[in-house]
Amino acid sequence: MTNSLEKNVRATFWNQEWFLSLLLVAVVLIAYQPAGNGTPVWDDEQHLTNPELYSTNGLLRIWTQPGVTQQYYPLVHSLFWVEYKLWEYKPAGYHLLNILLHAGSALLLFRILRKLEFSAVWLAAAIFAFHPVEVESVAWISELKNALSGIFYLGSALTYLNYDQQKRKTLYFAALGLFVMGLLSKTVVASMPAALLVVFWWKRGRLSWKQDVLPLIPFFTVGIVSGIFTAWVEKKYIGATGSDFNFSLVDRMLIAGRAFWFYLEKIFWPVDLIFIYPRWDVSASVWWQYLFPVFALQLLALLWILRRRARGPLAAMLFFSGTLFPALGFFNIYPFRFSFVADHFQYLASIGPIALAAAGIMKIPADFLKKGVCGILLGTLVVLTWRQSGMYASNETLWLMTVAKNPGSWMAHDNLGVALLGNGKVDEAVNETRVALALRPDSAETYSNLANALLQGGRVDEAVENYNKSLDINPGNQASHYNLGNVLLFQKQDVDGAIPHLEKCIGLEREMGRPENVYAHYDLGVAYSRKGQFQEAVVHFQKAVELVPQFGEAQERLAWILATCGDQRVGKGWQGLISLGKLNDLAGGRDPRILKIMAAVYANAGQFKEAVETAQQALTIATAMHDDAQIEALEGQLELYKAGKPFRDTTGAP
Predict the structure, then answer these.
(1) pLDDT tens for residues 357-381?
(2) Any idea what the Cα angle at residue 318 is, between residues 314 and 322, rounded to 5°?
(3) pTM (predicted TM-score)
(4) How many angstroms separate the CA atoms of 237 and 92, rounded?
């Protein structure tokens, strides 16, 4: 009697929802441990909060100015903004949030399936949580948009299912609110109302216009508007235009059919997962390529015929293909430049086949065999996810593993070159970038990356040549304009040659609505200073400080020009004194350069007592540091200040 009771207590404990939830979260944390402190990869740094958006005004711009962030997903970038405030650029915090959001989505999936009285709720949720095809969406910091949108998608769906049962208006508007928040995280959420209709048909065998369709019309409307806006953003700001996207309707159907089977295969056989898959050669003249869309349509037709016996398989495939639809090739999205498929595109879509597979496993008649299959399956998935997440340990690791599996990818070689250069491996970076150019000779970005590597290796003339090649291919490449202008200004001392490129860089960013390059403004300030055009220099230094108030060098140069150039049109110099005081405090009052500039600012304003005291302090520090250049400059300036005269300089350089 006692033993039987103890067994029942233990069985009840092991089946407690809270315990299983904690277990699922714990296993997810373990499975993603290799990526837990991984450094930013590929475009992560472009997604993380830009310095000019650190302020509260920057947060407002995230919401009101498309183009100031990598993509217009303001809720995602607001969360990045909050994360920066919490842990700046420490990667562990970003990774942990993604992992916990993914675990949260798995738990929401469990609650949805339980509400739908599904037969394999925990198994389906666990497969989704542990499946290696989801790694790209979780271990890649940029894919916060997937992890976050998953929470809102599933949260909205669960809330709407509650509304469908209870008909409470508060639940309806809560579901709509979560849906909108999901769209502000990623537009794939727009497929949710169609998915709900599939679910209602699966449960009821039919759809009612009044009960099922009509309440979802506002969801469809908002989703369609969001989709149109995102398509416009992809073309205008992301670059989803050009020859890489010139496909006929037949071509796009061929892409869609092949992608359908590709994604389905990766769910049921998740091996050889790659960050960038080979880009298929699509041709309407190749007969066998038609087999992919034909067989996909035949599968759906067969499941339609069998629907009277079992609606689940058709519902799963409709959910799968419908959720995938935006990424199947019918719309231009930037990644199609280098591949038509990516694991993160099926983050939510995979739920359909996963649920179908889980239901199939639960039909195994022998209980011991069923448990054995579940244990082996989940254990295998955890191991595969653990191994796959290790790919995201560093940028170099990611691209090395990608190149090993996809050696024909110009994008992979190009980015491996960037990663190698970031780790100081200049010669290897040059070699990888040349491989990328051999595969894709018309890539402006690759010529620019090659130039960066050559420049870091001291091969300035070759770097200039390759920046020019980049601009020959794409005159609108603002990065190449900036880099070339910077090299001409500081390496070649060609001020007149540098200015047009730096101005063009800023002009292109303004045209695209993107954040202006603060360093381009700084460089223009230096360039105009060297030409003696101090009024123009002040404009650009002021803009640099406006964009990034913490930009110390811009603050110093601005204050120096205002105080010493002798041109009364540029002001008295007090604009820079407060910020210089902050810089001096940060330097512990021990930076003779900052103190020298502060002294010049005081003298220009007629505060000669303060100027003498500050210059004397700077001279004392410079003497202790044996900085002969500063000592000589300060001695001369100090004599002027004692005589009640400001210091005048024509170089514009402190």
Answers:
(1) 999 999 998 888 999 999 999 999 9
(2) 175
(3) 0.86
(4) 30
